[in-house]
Amino acid sequence: MPPGFVHLHVHSRFSFGDGACDMDDLIARSAELGMSALALTDHQGLYGALRFYRKAREAGIKAIIGAEVVVEAAGLLGEEADLPPEQRLHLPAPVGFGRAAGAGWHLTLLVRDIVGYRNLCRLLSRAHVRSGDAPSIVSIRDLGRLSEGLIALSGCPRGEIGAAVLAGEPARARSALERLRGCFAPGDLYVELVHTLTPDSPRYIAGLASLAQSCGVPIVATNNVHYVRPEEFRIHDVLASAGARMELPGPYERPNAELYLKSAGQMRALFAHYPHACDATLEIAERCDLDLGLGQFHFPAAEVPHGETPYSVLSKLSWRGLEQRYRPVTPEAVRRLQHELAIIQDLGFPEYFLIVKEIVDFARSRGIRYSGRGSAGDSIVTHVLGITDADPIRHDLLFERFLNPERRQMPDIDVDFDSARRDEVIAFIYDRFGHDHVAMVATVNTMTARSAVRTVARAFGYPIATVNALSRHLPWVSARKIREVLDTYPECRDHPLHDRRHDLLLELAEQLDHCPMHLGTHLGGFIITREPIDTWTPLQWAAKGVVVSQYDKDDIEALGLVKMDILGLRIHSAISDAVEMARARVGEAAIIEPFELTPDDPHVYEMLQRADTVGMFQLESSGQRNLSQRLQATRFEDIIAQISLFRPGPLEAEMITPFIRRRHGLEPVVVPHPDMERPLRDSYGVIVYQEQVLLVSQAVAGFDLAEADSLRRAMTKGRSREEMARIREHFIERAVGRGVALEVAEEVFRQLEGFAAYGFNKAHAACFAVVSYASAWLKTYYPAEFAAAIMNNEPMGFYTPRHVLNDARAHGIEMLTPHVNESQATYTVGGNGTAIRVGLKDLHRMTARLLDVIPAEAQVRPFRDLADFLRRTNAEPGPAESLIRVGALDGLGTTELGRPPTRDEMLALLPELKAVIRREGNAGDDVLCLAPAPTQPAEDLSHPSGWAPARRLSAELEFLGLSLTCHPLDLAADDLAARGVTSARELRNLPDGTRVTVCGVRERAQTPRTRSGKRTCFLTLEDPTGLLDAVVFEDTLNRVGGVIVKHRCYLVTGKLQNNTERGVAIIASDVQPYIVRTASGSLVRLRRGVPSGPMGPSLGGAGAPEEESWENTDYSSSARSSG
Amino acid sequence: MGRNIAIKRFDPAIGKTADMFSAKEGRLSVVVEMLKSPWIARGSDLVHEHDAALGKRREEPVAVAWNALDRAPAAFEWHARDYPVEQVIQVWAIELYWWDLRRRVSRRCWRVLARGGTYDLAYDRLERRWLLLGEQD
Fold first, then answer.
1. E strands, A344-465, where?
2. Hey, are the CB atoms on A256 and B99 less than 8 Å from each other?
3. Can you tell me the distance from the alpha carbon of A369 to that of A372, in angstroms, rounded to the nearest whole number?
4. CB contact under 8 A, B99 and A504
5. How far is A248 from A458, CA to CA, in rounded Å?
6. Chain A: residue nearest B111 by CA?
7. Phi and psi for A788 in degrees, rounded to 5?
8. Structure ipTM
9. Nearest CA-CA partner of A760 in A631, A645, A683, A617
10. Quick one: which of A171, A375, A697, A765 has the fewest CB in 10 Å?
């Protein structure tokens, strides 16, 4: 067998911009080349190290974890700039991701053991976190202090020693090597030889080898691997260019494609004169033996009084909680609690529960709304500790679904907090556990079709307009599917990527599929550790100013660390706001806490049955509204079922139809075995919930619940045919052994097999249902407060803010336009709950200062006229113009004609008044007599604005994103009537199968893949009377897809579907664009023309600017020849 | 006395110059090492007029005999004359401007010693042909 070789310097795509190795491919290729070990040394971090560690070990390859770090100069006493120019070395381009990027000299560090791992984590964290906004560089001092357990290679030609040799500065190289040698234990530093097959390579290697020999430092060969196969150098160049925001060839200008994973034979041939440099790779691999101890759990310390244990504390708290939650306490509840506590103790998890309890106790003590969710709802312990609200006994929720004693896995309790007050909870966690023990979890954002196309196009140096044109309208699919999408999606029929000049771009974009693009911060995932957290994971600053781990949630789970999801849920904020507004109006005592309501109010269920669910948590989407009509919920269990049924799994398994048919008596409820009746009684014999799989297995085959959960998991995870046959045999054997007939046992198993993979976690649905019911109750009894609260917490939910207000108006609530004398920054309720006053926060160009000043000044004294307003608020011309245009100054002041000035007159006066105020200051006489500039005659003097409704509406849509004056289609009522258009309200009264034409403004257009693989577009439209749903099947979609993408308002013709089984929808046969014009021919602009208010489009909530069609962009003139 | 032994040394014992190498084989390894030195310019790098005295940069098609065992040129024919490769001095690879068809370069280059001079040969992977990129005496 030929002598081997181990690659010790390898960059994966987690080097973010300087590495193109796909992790799976890297490991597969290494295995193919017969390599026994492999290192991963990404720039400045261990981003991919954990997944590499796991995958390599699975493939039978020894994983060597490491990093190529940037260190300060070692061969200099002062600064580089202090040297004479001819002796200065050219500092390499910065490497690393985000705020962990640094420009300095490269040094390769390999982890020898767990001490080395902890030191490397600490070394990286110190460099990244301490640097703040400065470039992140490892100091020589830290290197010396934290080098135990690490092996260092002197680095690539961008290391100080290599660079000095290349620059002909042997003294500098020697000095750097001597100093670095002092940082590491004898034998732990190697001089790294990289043969990149450039003209300089022989000289470089000879120089380094000679230096190493003279200093008595061993040499080691590497290939500084940046891609797996030679042909992937192009992807590497693209990533490097994109990472540095440069055009090709990017910042490194590597002259060839030699940095690939070469075979041992190739490496030994390259280093034929230095065989011992290749032998050294094997020695190093042998010395590196890291065991991360995966599979163990490491909980942070809970507060336990002296003399107690975590279990004893948990137990006492649980029994106390049981008394409060269950009155009277039942034997079943006692048995259940005993059972769960015993398992929690056996698994060693009491501390975890105590920590979660501490956090929710804090939230409760501060009045911060929260709710537990997920499978944690299956536990009575979480219920009695006050973490979850749904009663596990009442709803047949099973602890084993949450914690299976047969599978020792880290428990995961997710808690949603009021998003507006989540920061208080986070601050508590940092205070309670210490900043050295808490960090946020990272998320790795990977490339999809759109981002891959943008990345390549930018590397090609295309102008931004071309980049936008090429990536726009690509659906949210993987980059591998770009060509398929271009060939099959009607909206992509005319896409510029069809041009043959972009073949190379497409080819490269496809190869970027799933490539890590950047490191994000998990929405609410926190790691809490008992030991200092930087001994477990490298840390760095995230862009948003928090310290984040370099690991994602899977890595954290693999390490056995505790991850808490502190998620913000805006519906909690909306519910709290609505309750507060309602209590302010009707009194504190009149409204009880919505989460504690008994969920049996018939008015609430009537609303659900009418599908009047806009704004309701989890029940408002078009699919859920359709299901509401079909299901006709009458009790809390129905809400749980409704939430569960409209999920990908149940939808794919087509559970809804038998559920609805059986519920309405259209088909009989039959189960193969009488013992299945009880577990399936709430779902009419259909297996909807995961918990039911466990119950059925228990009832029919006599499995205990842990065993049954293992069976469910085995059926769910991609099981092989052989494994399924084995499970089947086991199940049937057990069932038959209990006296169940063979054919019955087979039928039961068939049903379990069919549904197990698709069932939904009932506990999760039950926890959500509590919130859903609370939101439904508020909408039923306090619709104005509920709608205002939603508007104040946008963006949230399924619908646009415009529709939320239109829906409130449909419930008889008056919409009051924003006004400087009446409006607050937020939406408020007036008229004793019959009106909503629009707030100023969503107004275009509004500033945070004005949001404070305007309501405060109006409180002191109402604004008298425009001059008074400008003088007292010092409003800038932009916001002042926006306020005038939406009518916020309507009716203020009097002109010579004895009426308030029209909006046109105020707009004409605005610059003059600003000039006068600028000249004379704010303190002058408050009467300003100016002759108004000549303006066009008022269109409609019956309204103080002087504007016709169409113009008022256009301004509202443009500056607020809302339609307050009326619905846009109200203005075209005559034309629509002449066309025989049916309204949304009328549809429900028409018989099934009627051919109808409807008209509506698009609220949503969703195009999920159906089970058959065909594309179907679900259009949700809005007309003045409400929402209507249209289904556009693939054959029609192929014709009208372009219309749907490019327009906002449509005339949809089709057959009405109106029956209990399928609900109300139109099966579209044609979709035509509809341009909204008034009877006088005025055009109503439906698109929001400007970004939203002071928070910007991403946070403002009232809608971001619409993208224009690609048809407007001339990409061809700037396209670059690419083959 | 031929070219192979034309390097002289001064022998103080006899007070005369003598051939440094007694045979070609002895001379070659020293010459190769010297040619690898950084101060030896490559013919393929020479682009300026004033460099002309050092050698010439060319880009001429040549016929090359390939030694599959060593994965290197064995000989080449240039201007109707055979040049057996005595020694491969250096190998390097070039991949540039791959995104631009008009400028793209994809070559693997060998600096060889033949007939007493160094020659830079390149196999152009795009055009699938051999080129002589430079020569230097």
1. 370-373, 414-418, 438-446
2. no
3. 11
4. yes
5. 9
6. A199
7. -65, -40
8. 0.76
9. A645
10. A171
Q: How far is B52 from chain A (nearest CA, A)?
A: 20
A265 in B contact zone (CB under 8 Å): no
User: Hey, how many other C-beta atoms are within 10 angstroms of the C-beta on A280?
Assistant: 23
Contacts of B100 in chain A (CB under 8 A): 1121-1122
Selecting from A202, A237, A1121 the residue whose C-beta is nearest the C-beta of B90 gives A202
| pLDDT of B49 | 47
Whether B92 sits inside 8 A of A199 (CB atoms) is yes
Q: Are the CB atoms for A375 and A763 separated by under 8 Å? A: yes
How high is the mean pLDDT in each 10-residue block of chain A (1123 residues)?
87 94 96 96 96 96 97 86 82 86 94 97 93 82 95 95 92 94 95 93 91 94 96 94 90 90 95 94 96 91 91 96 93 96 94 95 95 93 95 92 86 91 93 94 93 94 92 86 87 87 94 91 91 95 89 93 90 95 92 91 95 93 89 93 85 82 90 89 89 90 88 73 82 91 90 80 93 96 96 90 91 93 94 93 92 95 92 92 94 84 90 85 56 68 87 90 90 92 91 94 81 80 91 90 86 91 89 88 69 34 30 31 32
Q: Which long-range contacts (CB under 8 A, 24 or more apart) does A986-991 make?
A: A986/A1025, A987/A1028, A987/A1056, A987/A1058, A987/A1064, A987/A1066, A988/A1058, A988/A1064, A990/A1056, A990/A1058, A991/A1056, A991/A1058
Q: Could you tell me whether strands B117-124 and B129-136 are parallel, antiparallel, or unpaired per DSSP bridges?
A: antiparallel
- The pTM of the full predicted model, rounded to 2 decimals, is 0.81
Whole-number Å distance between alpha carbons of A611 and A1017: 21
Chain B residues inside the 8 Å CB shell of A1123 = 101
The chain A residue lying nearest B92, using CA atoms, is A197
Phi and psi at residue A255, to the nearest 5°: -85, -5
- Decide if A522 touches B, using CB distance below 8 A: no
What is d(CA A262, CA A264) in angstroms, rounded to the nearest whole number?
7
DSSP code of residue A256: S
Helix, strand, coil fractions of chain B, as percent rounded to 5:
15, 50, 35
Q: Tell me, yes or no, if A257 comes closer than 8 A to chain B by beta carbon.
A: yes
Return the H-helix or E-strand segment holding A744: helix A742-756
- Residue A549: beta bridge partners? A539
* Inter-chain touch A460–B90, beta carbons under 8 Å: no
Residues of A in contact with B90 (CB under 8 A): 199, 202
**How far is residue B51's CA from residue B88's CA, in Å, rounded to a whole number?**
24
End-to-end CA gap in chain A: 44
Q: Which residues in chain B are closer than 8 Å to A199, comparing Cβ atoms?
A: 42, 45, 90, 92
DSSP code at position A971: G
Strands A1049-1059 and A1026-1032: unpaired
Tokens of A428: 């508590």
Q: What is the 3-state secondary structure (H, E, C) of A434-491?
A: CHHHEEEEEEEEECCHHHHHHHHHHHCCCCHHHHHHHHCCCCCCCHHHHHHHHHHCHH
Q: Is A249 on the interface with B (CB under 8 A)?
A: yes
What is the arrangement of strands in the sheet containing A37-43, beginning at the earlier edge strand?
A37-43, A62-71, A105-111, A150-153, A189-194, A219-222
- Chain A residue numbers touching B92 (CB-CB < 8 A): 197-199, 201, 256
Q: A1121 contacts in B (CB within 8 Å)?
A: 100-102
Give CA–CA dist A784/A85, Å, rounded.
73
* Structure tokens belonging to residue A400: 């084993």
Interface of B with A in 46-85 (CB under 8 A): none
- Chosen from A197, A248, A263 to mutate, greatest number of chain B CBs within 10 A: A197
Task: Please answer yes or no on whether A203 and B36 come within 8 Å at the CB atom.
Answer: yes
Percent of chain A with pLDDT over 90: 63
The Cα–Cα gap between A854 and A683 comes to 55
Question: Cα(A877)–Cα(A913) distance, rounded to whole angstroms?
Answer: 10
